[in-house]
Design brief:
Layout lengths: L2 H14 L12 H10 L5 H14 L3 H16 L5 H19 L7 H5 L6 H10 L10 H10 L7 H11 L2 H17 L25
Bound molecules: iron/sulfur cluster.
The site of iron/sulfur cluster has 13 residues, from α8.
């Protein structure tokens, strides 16, 4: 895809949604971190349902530690993979208390050292809590980037590196939200809604569905 087309796609996505953000509900970096950790292979809707009950009771590392693994499970048992997520959340809270003064570190290496926190979660937290121009590539962004040919790659890491290279600075902070939302609601996995797509004329996917 050429530079002009790429710029036009990003401009249209921005004009359509100038202030995008995550659909996960949070009020602090810690709430965001835990919500992202819980959202792996689960929907944001299911995470929000659980955190709406959990956070009024416990929304700090110490408060969640005090719940213990079993206490925490009671709040998150409707979320997929809740057993391992409860274990990781408790371990992460313990590390935040013991090593980071109960504050979410604004540091990639420190975030990725937390149990259950990989590159994607660190990218989301750095981007959405701290405003870094990081691009967390999930299944939606991977699909949209490859289909449109905005940034092609065989793995999520390839696509992340490509996007970081080709997306101009002014779009970097928000591009991950635009692409996730586009993939979640328009460029869906099975039957993309090409007829309702605002970048249809620019997209280079060969099997568009009208
Ligand atoms: S035209 Fe279709 S394939 Fe291309 S981005 Fe839009 S929805 Fe996805």
């Amino acid at each position: 895809m050429n530079k002009e087309k790429r710029l036009e796609i990003l401009t249209r996505l921005r004009d359509d949604n100038p202030h995008p953000t995550t659909e996960l509900e949070f009020t602090t970096p810690f709430e965001l971190l835990i919500a992202v950790l819980l959202s792996a292979q689960a929907t944001d809707v299911s995470v929000n349902k659980a955190t709406r009950k959990l956070y009024p009771v416990a929304n700090t590392p110490q408060a969640i530690l005090d719940l213990g693994v079993d206490g925490l499970k009671d709040y998150i048992k409707t979320i997929g993979l809740f057993n391992s997520k409860a274990e990781n959340t408790i371990k992460t809270c313990r590390m935040l208390v013991e090593l980071h003064n109960s504050v979410v570190p604004e540091d990639r290496a420190a975030l990725e050292a937390l149990p259950g926190v990989g590159r994607k979660t660190a990218n989301v937290v750095l981007n959405t809590a701290f405003g870094w121009p990081t691009i967390a590539v999930d299944t939606h962004i991977y699909r949209v980037s490859n289909r449109t040919k905005l940034a092609m790659g065989k793995t999520v890491d390839d696509v992340e590196q490509k996007l970081l290279k080709v997306v101009p600075k002014e779009f970097k902070v928000d591009v991950h939200h635009w692409l996730i939302l586009h993939g979640r609601y328009i460029c869906v996995a099975r039957k993309p809604k090409c007829g309702a797509c605002l970048i249809e004329d620019l997209c280079e996917f060969k099997e568009k569905i009208e």
